[in-house]
Design a protein that fits this description.
14 helices, three-stranded parallel sheet, mainly alpha, 56% helix, 8% strand
């Protein structure tokens, strides 16, 4: 009995300490000079919500607030979808430089990871592994190939489908989606030996230095990507604990494909299936988290993110506009690049 009482007292004490840390974190945030004043008569949590709503613009981003086991206030951010966009005409015009557009997509995937995750086909490999996983594939194959009433055959089939190579071979033969469907469908430069973001920007600017054959479209795209990089780098890097809070694959804000608009596109199919599953009540898919403590430096870190997020969104809108312009010029036969078709 004494042991149970002692344990209960410790739990009460620990709960009180966690509550005190949470309150201290809220007060530290409210006291930051960039946070708008709120009614001091309101409860601290109400003041926090009011300050977030009136002091910071969070476009297309849902914010959830919780408490960690250690008593830190946890802010998790989840993005919204903005559809799929084809760059098929641009990909065709840049086919003489097969690693250039994949490099642009790498820049987008890298520089939107902390603000509104956007992807090209290669960036969806983790989503394919998650959604078109081997367990789902094996179940689909079993339902298609098993014969009702033939228990011995079905047992052999079930064991065979447990072999990764066998399942993938059958999937390809039967044209079923699987975790390597994207690699099977798209050109290899989208996946292999991709340029780094620095190499991509250097390559785009190098094209501009070669003379007037290069239109302003790709030069403007390089400048927009550089602005997106700066906006991304201004956002705090997650700690290990924060990254663990968002482990998994994020929602897809925007997908850029290299297919022509009238062609089948497994990347678009994957994005649609993944988002449908989420909207039907699937798991949460936060892309970013920050933990707030009573330390004023922690409050400053959160303010830095809240202030920088709209700038990152605006920078990505600029990149999207430049890509749409380049795609439109290429579709109309305009002089979008000084590259030989």
């Amino acid at each position: 009995m004494r042991t149970d009482l002692d344990r209960h007292q410790r739990q009460v004490q620990e709960y009180g300490e966690r509550q005190a840390r949470v309150l201290g974190a809220v007060v530290a945030f409210l006291n930051h000079p960039a946070v708008p004043a709120t009614d001091p008569d309101d409860a601290p949590t109400e003041r926090l919500i009011t300050a977030l709503g009136t002091g910071f613009a969070l476009p297309s981003t849902a914010v959830e607030i919780g408490v960690t086991d250690s008593g830190q206030l946890a802010f998790t951010f989840e993005n919204e979808t903005d559809g799929a966009w084809t760059l098929g005409a641009l990909a065709w015009r840049l086919r003489g430089e097969p690693h250039l557009l994949p490099g642009v997509l790498t820049c987008i995937e890298t520089f939107t990871a902390r603000s509104e995750p956007c992807f090209g086909p290669a960036g969806l490999e983790a989503h394919a592994e998650y959604h078109w996983n081997l367990d789902r594939l094996s179940k689909e194959l079993y339902e298609r190939l098993s014969i009702e009433g033939d228990a011995a055959r079905n047992d052999r089939l079930e064991r065979a489908l447990g072999n990764r190579h066998t399942a993938l071979t059958l999937a390809r033969r039967l044209n079923l989606t699987h975790e390597y469907t994207l690699r099977d469908h798209f050109p290899y430069p989208l996946f292999e030996r991709r340029l780094t973001p620095d190499q991509t920007l250097d390559a785009l600017w190098d094209q501009a230095r070669r003379g007037p054959r290069l239109s302003a479209a790709l030069t403007s795209l390089a400048d927009a990507l550089n602005a997106l990089r700066q906006a991304h780098n201004s956002l705090p890097v997650m700690t290990e604990a924060e990254a663990e809070a968002v482990c998994g694959v994020p929602l897809i804000t925007r997908l850029y494909t290299t297919q022509a608009e009238d062609q089948p596109c497994p990347a678009t199919d994957l994005a649609n299936e993944f988002m449908d599953y989420h909207w039907q009540g699937g798991e949460p898919h936060a892309f970013y988290a920050l933990h707030l403590t009573p330390d004023p430096a922690s409050a400053a870190r959160l303010v830095t993110y809240l202030q920088g997020l709209p700038r990152a969104h605006e920078a990505m809108r600029r990149v999207g506009g430049e890509l749409e312009l380049a795609q439109s010029l290429c579709e109309s036969g305009g002089h979008c690049a000084g590259l030989t078709a």
